[in-house]
Design goal:
Oligomer: single chain
Number of helices: 14
Number of domains: 4
CATH class of the largest domain: Alpha Beta
CATH superfamily of the largest domain: Glycosidases
Shape: globular
Length: 637
């Protein structure tokens, strides 16, 4: 084996973090976050090394720099703040500090009492002589003065004193000499979203049950008053008439049945049209503008599927699946079959045209002011498609947020998040025991937190869990508190605040008389809403509730009780929930010293505004069925 043509670098830089899958994907941060960069940096020999983090927005030419400090062993760390949305890139650069290396050698020898340092001092004089011309101002004058001592016949003691003088160290600390400067061959990226991608309270509703766009616009100030940040609307497009589903998902619709909003497309248009029964374009634009004014923005559903009446079936028949006999293939999730829906064919020969058309749909709604999208079943579409579409949209509009509705296998959900989805639905709905909740939250708060932002929806139009069906109002109380205090982003679907819990049949998670297939009369007057308002206010007031990776689970000595604390800076919140919706439970919540609280401290309960005295160690807890404490230590704000 022949030697390389170029001398390889002697400085080794390894294990640069944060990074995902060797740099294949970009970790996520939100605007204003501090990005901690670490790396193993070392070199053969005894030279002193220096290092910086180099960072910039993607597309910028000028690199910014932040110093890295030695942490332990060969581990170094540095940090920078991401102050703009979009993609950032960063790398690490390390070099030999020749002056510091020479100075350390001289210092050690002088401290050891070595008498003859003439050779070392001559080496220093040569180094300073080369360096002085590259310096300016006070550093140059200081270095010149030291050179004048080292380069002439001064006593050795005077020369050593001049070489080791603190003023010389300070003058050369930022010198431009980066000997053997080395960087990894690959730069890494960070994807920066706005806060809504990480933190927010969502309310899902069907506009047709609230008087259309105008009716929803009237409710937005009240939703904002309740502390909701996003109102999510299922598809608002025309609904197909062919094979329209009837009430309770019957295959034959009766006269007047409105059909499922997910059967997109009719005579009025497809994905860039609105259902005329919901209102006019002026009504829709007023809805979006009102949401922006009151701080409760509108989210639209992006569902890539078409009713038999969608214009694309006539204009682009090549975009759809056909069986060998020529018939179109309905959407299916065996044993379920959706006769009112056709999926598009991503293996079409005209797949580029299909990709561009779907990109055009998202651009259309962004131009109308919609900046949040809930994406229906993204796991049934190519990962590469989502990576391309989301990156394209966010390069143009980095404020856009995409929520992945992918209740599927873990690795698929995680890869969708890595590919660009801002946040993701989770298995929270099916995690109901203390052990399940604890293990799942720890999983989400671990390495996954670099890229997977969880959204804890307590219910959806598709999911009415057995816990809610059988637990009554206490179950709704417990699940709401868990969703809203464990996850920075949570949501409820209208009807939750009214404790709606009747399934279409035993063993099913579908609602009886599902709103997906009929119009209901809705109003914001459910008995759970006062608690919703209090908890949402606490979520906004306490930064500790706006993160998940800061969770610490507390011992309870009763598996019906779950307790956890969250701390961000000086802000601390302690939560205890009775997971049993049928019986009162008692136990303890053990507060660890690691939370940094005083030995004893007063707390205020967000749930009922009561005050209690708590302490480090064991605290007695007794909670009603489904009851909860959300405790704020007074010294934590």
């Amino acid at each position: 084996m022949t030697a390389p043509e170029r001398r390889p670098p002697r400085i080794v830089i390894q294990d640069v973090r944060p990074q995902l899958d060797c740099g294949r994907w970009a970790p996520k941060r939100t605007l204003g976050d501090l990005v901690l960069v670490t790396a193993d940096i070392f070199r053969d020999g005894h030279e002193v090394l220096r290092a910086v983090v180099r960072y910039r927005r993607v597309g910028e030419r000028r690199w910014r720099e932040a110093p890295m400090e030695h942490v332990e062993a060969d581990r170094w760390g540095g940090e920078f703040i991401v102050d703009e949305l979009g993609r950032w890139c960063f790398t690490v650069e390390a070099w030999v500090d020749r002056f510091a290396s020479w100075r350390r050698e001289l210092e050690r020898k002088a401290e050891a009492g070595q008498r003859d340092l003439a050779s070392e001092l001559a080496e220093g004089a040569t180094f300073l002589g080369e360096l002085v011309p590259s310096l300016k101002g006070e550093p140059r004058a200081t270095a010149q003065a030291a050179f004048d001592v080292l380069g002439f016949s001064e006593p050795q003691g005077a020369k050593v004193e001049a070489a080791l003088a603190p003023e010389l160290v300070a003058a050369l600390d930022a010198m431009p000499d980066r000997f053997e400067a080395t960087s990894p061959t690959r730069t890494l990226e960070i994807d920066v979203d706005r806060e809504r991608a990480r933190f927010g309270s969502w309310y899902e509703l069907f506009p047709r049950s609230w008087g259309g766009f105008a009716g929803v616009a009237e409710q937005l100030p009240r939703l904002a008053e309740l502390g909701f940040d996003v109102v999510y609307l299922p598809p608002v497009h025309p609904i197909g008439a062919t094979n329209r589903k009837g009430r309770n998902n019957t295959e034959a619709a009766e006269a007047g049945d409105p059909g499922s909003p997910w059967a997109i497309g009719g005579a009025e248009g497809g994905h860039t049209a609105i259902h005329p029964e919901l209102g006019t374009w002026e009504d829709f634009d007023r809805l979006v503008a009102t949401g922006r004014e009151v701080g409760c923005e509108v989210c639209l559903d992006f569902a890539i599927q078409c009713s038999p009446d969608h214009p694309w079936l006539r204009e682009h028949p090549e975009w759809f699946h056909r069986r060998p006999d020529g018939t179109l293939k309905n959407a299916e999730n065996p044993p379920k079959r959706y006769q009112d829906i056709y999926n598009v064919n991503f293996d079409s020969d005209d797949w580029r045209g299909l990709w561009d058309a779907l990109l055009g749909v998202v651009r259309f709604w962004v131009e109308r002011g919609v900046l949040v999208f809930r994406v229906d079943n993204p796991h049934t579409k190519p990962i590469a498609f989502w990576e391309w579409l989301i990156r394209t949209i966010r390069d143009e509009h980095p404020e856009v947020v995409f929520l992945s509705e992918a209740f599927t296998r873990p690795r698929v959900m995680e890869t969708l998040a890595k590919a660009g989805f801002s946040q993701s639905y989770t298995y929270f709905t099916w995690r109901n025991s203390k052990w399940e909740l604890t293990e799942y939250a720890r999983e989400l708060a671990g390495p996954m937190a670099e890229y997977f932002r969880p959204s804890f929806f307590a219910n959806t139009p598709d999911i009415l869990h057995e816990y809610l069906q059988e637990g009554g109002p206490p179950a709704f109380h417990a699940r709401f508190v868990l969703a809203a205090t464990l996850s920075p982003t949570y949501g409820i679907y209208s009807g939750f605040e009214h404790y709606e819990n009747v399934p279409v049949r035993p063993g099913s998670e579908e609602y009886l008389n599902s709103e997906k297939y009929e119009v209901k009369r809705r109003a914001l007057d459910g008995p759970l809403l006062p608690l919703v308002a209090r908890v949402n206010a606490a979520r906004r007031a306490h930064r500790a509730l706006q993160r998940l990776e800061n969770v610490t689970f507390l011992g309870t000595e009763n598996d019906a009780l779950i307790a956890y604390a969250k701390r961000t800076g000086e802000d601390v919140v302690i939560v205890c929930v009775n997971l049993d919706p049928h019986a009162e439970r008692e136990g303890v919540a053990v507060v660890p010293v690691s939370l940094g609280l005083p030995p004893a401290f007063p707390v205020r309960d967000v749930v009922d505004d009561a005050t209690h005295s708590w302490r480090i160690g064991r605290n007695y807890v007794r909670l009603a069925p489904g009851g909860a404490h959300i405790l704020v230590p007074e010294m934590a704000g």
